[in-house]
Design brief:
Blueprint: H1 14-21, E1 56-63, H2 65-73, E2 88-89, H3 95-104, E3 113-122, H4 123-126, E4 130-133, E5 140-145, H5 149-154, E6 156-167, H6 180-183, H7 185-197, H8 202-214
Helix pairs in contact: 2-7
Length: 226
C-alpha cells in the first residue's frame, strides 16, 4: 500500500516523478518534465514571500488524498512525520509550483488526486532553513530536516488550508451521501473538493455543509479556501 507521506515527487525520488509526468494524462492533467536535482549547495537568494501578517512566511505544499487525511486528523495544524527514508520535508515557496506538482504529478500517481495546501510559519524561525531552486526560478523549495519537523509544526500559525484540487480521469471518490459528514468525516472532507469541482448536486452539498456545521466541524471548513 502506498504510504500517505509519499505525495511529493521528492518523496518517491525525483526520477520517478519525471517518468510519471511524461506519461499521457487525461483532461484533468497535463504533461510536465521535472527539472534535474539541485546542484550541491545551490540555494535561492530571492526575497522571502511574506503573507499579510508581518513576521510570517507563506508556504505551500502539494499533497495527495492520503496525506490530506492525515492533515485533517491533526486538525489541519501539523504535518505527519517523515518516513525513515525521507530525510527532508519539502514545502515550496509559491502557489504555482505547488499547483504544478499537484496537477501534473499527483494526478498520475497514487490515488490520482492532488491538492495545494497553504500555511504560515514564523519567519524568524523558518529563515534558518535552506531555500533551493531545483530547476526554473519558480521551482523553489524550503529544505527542512525530518528531525526538525515537530518543531517546524509548532511554529505554524493558524490552520493549513486547501487552496486548489486536481483530479486524474480515473480518480475514484466516495459516494456522495447526505450522512457522510457524520459517518466518515475525514473522507467527506477530502472528497468534498471533488464533488464541488464537478458541480455535484447543489442541494446535496448544502445538506452536507449544514450537517458539518451542526456537528461542530466548522473549524475545518469544507471546500477550497480562496
Amino acid at each position: 500500500m502506498r504510504d500517505a507521506r509519499r505525495d511529493h515527487p521528492h518523496d518517491d525520488e525525483r526520477r520517478e516523478g519525471h517518468e510519471n509526468a511524461q506519461q499521457g494524462g487525461g483532461p484533468h492533467s497535463r504533461r510536465v518534465v521535472w527539472p534535474d536535482p539541485p546542484q550541491k549547495g545551490k540555494q535561492s537568494r530571492g526575497r522571502h514571500r511574506f503573507c499579510g501578517i508581518i513576521g510570517r512566511m507563506l508556504l505551500f505544499r502539494p499533497v495527495g488524498p492520503e496525506e490530506l487525511r492525515l492533515l485533517y486528523e491533526s486538525g489541519m495544524r501539523a504535518w505527519p512525520p517523515r518516513l525513515p527514508d525521507q530525510p527532508i520535508f519539502y514545502p515550496v515557496t509559491n502557489h504555482d509550483y505547488a499547483a504544478q506538482i499537484a496537477r501534473d504529478w499527483n494526478t498520475k500517481s497514487g490515488s490520482r488526486a492532488g491538492f495545494v495546501t497553504r500555511f504560515e510559519v514564523d519567519d524568524a524561525y523558518v529563515t534558518r532553513f535552506d531555500r533551493r531552486v531545483v530547476g526554473a526560478r519558480e521551482h523553489e523549495e524550503l529544505w527542512v530536516p525530518a528531525e526538525e519537523l515537530p518543531t517546524f509544526n509548532a511554529h505554524i500559525r493558524g490552520a493549513i488550508a486547501v487552496t486548489a484540487a486536481f483530479y486524474g480521469p480515473d480518480y475514484a471518490p466516495k459516494e456522495l451521501i447526505a450522512d457522510a459528514a457524520q459517518e466518515s468525516p475525514a473522507a467527506t472532507f477530502v472528497d468534498f473538493f471533488y464533488w464541488e469541482s464537478v458541480g455535484a448536486r447543489a442541494a446535496a452539498l448544502e445538506t452536507i455543509r449544514a450537517k458539518w456545521t451542526a456537528l461542530g466541524r466548522d473549524a475545518i471548513p469544507l471546500g477550497v479556501v480562496g
